Amino acid sequence: MDKKIILIVDDVEMNRAILSATFQEEYDILEAVNGREALDVIELHKDKISAVLLDVIMPVMDGFEVLEEMNRKGWIEKIPVFLITAESSQQVMKKGYELGVVDIIGKPITPFFIRRRIGNVIKLNNVVNEQEAMLKKQEKEIRELNRSILETLSTAIEFRDCESGEHVVRMSNLTLLFLKAIYEYYPEYGVEESELQVIADAAVMHDVGKIAIPDNILNKPGRLTLEEFEIMKTHSLRGCELLDSVPKMRENPIYEYAYDICRHHHERWDGKGYPDGLKGEEISIWAQVVALADVYDALVSERVYKKAYSHDVAIHMILEGECGTFNPILMECLKKVEKQVRESYEDKN
């Protein structure tokens, strides 16, 4: 295993030599003679640097300027910095700690003392980093498990609906594509980057309530009667009931989005949707996005009651309002990502 790195930043060669000799048995040593050189070294090796031993008074760029730049780039949160300085005034100490240094050690240097003092902090920081990495790995595994469970349940429903099961995957991909356009071009909607994949995962649950719809209605090859359609419309509310029946579902970050999408993906911009008759911006942007993705996928897919339309025909029908009224901003997003939508469906048939 490669040794971790300690970066020594000091314009005095003798100081660098003493510090290098103190740590070279346990660490690979890199040196810089001023702050500008130090930042270049950190940029190249930041993932392997265990600590920076930083002088304050140096030519070109001093130690405080280095700390300010490390704060600006977010490096100070991951890399422990020690000020090694003969300047031990209260002002220097206060400014150093305010800029995020973990310790300030005065010159002249005592090798045994500095090795133990800095070594202990490095070991503690390594433990913290390992724990953070482990938690991130566990979080990723839990997220993937959640997604797998949701897709399995939703795919089972799609099979019952005479679908191949690929519909839920396409819905997730389309939702993510449209949401990225919202995130990039319309920040006023307040969609955070961290939300994009969570909402796309929640989208696979949009039709989960169909599990409560009788087969003779769900798979009827012809047009539904008014009575049958009223029964079909209940799937949005039944989906919400199903989500609420899952133990601890409310504690899952995906719940809020999945519930809202289940209930409102058939609401329409002009207020002519169901079950709540919401209108315009009363409908969450993610429910609007899932509604658009659902309509497009339905148009280009073969169903028991229709043949599949081509991509171009489907896009034309949506933009011309033949499939209901959508948020004009979503129509602009559809135009912006139409090429990617086409490419994502090229291998579908």
How is this structure best described in words?
With 349 residues, this protein is of the alpha/beta class. Helix content is 56%, strand content 7%. The chain is built from 15 helices and five strands. Helix 2 packs parallel to helix 3 (63-73), helix 6 (166-185) packs antiparallel against helix 7 and helix 6 packs across helix 12.
Topology:
Blueprint: E1 5-9, H1 13-23, E2 28-32, H2 35-45, E3 49-54, H3 63-73, E4 81-85, H4 90-98, E5 103-106, H5 111-160, H6 166-185, H7 196-202, H8 215-218, H9 226-233, H10 235-245, H11 255-264, H12 285-300, H13 311-319, H14 328-336, H15 338-345
Parallel strand pairs: 1-2, 1-3, 3-4, 4-5
Outline of the structure:
The chain has helices spanning 13-23, 35-45, 63-73, 90-98, 111-160, 166-185, 196-202, 215-218, 226-233, 235-245, 255-264, 285-300, 311-319, 328-336, 338-345; strands at residues 5-9, 28-32, 49-54, 81-85, 103-106.
What attributes does this structure have?
349 residues; five-stranded parallel β-sheet; 15 helices
Termini separation comes to 49 Å
Radius of gyration, rounded?
A: 29 Å
Instruction: List unreliable stretches of 5+ residues.
Output: none
What's the β-strand tally?
5
Overall SS class? alpha/beta
Side-by-side strand order of the widest sheet: 2-1-3-4-5
Helix content: 55-70%
The H-and-E topology, N to C, reads as EHEHEHEHEHHHHHHHHHHH
- Strand portion, in percent? 5-15%
The major sheet is characterized as: 5 strands, parallel
The helix count comes to: 15
Mean of all residue-level pLDDT scores: 86
Structural shape: elongated
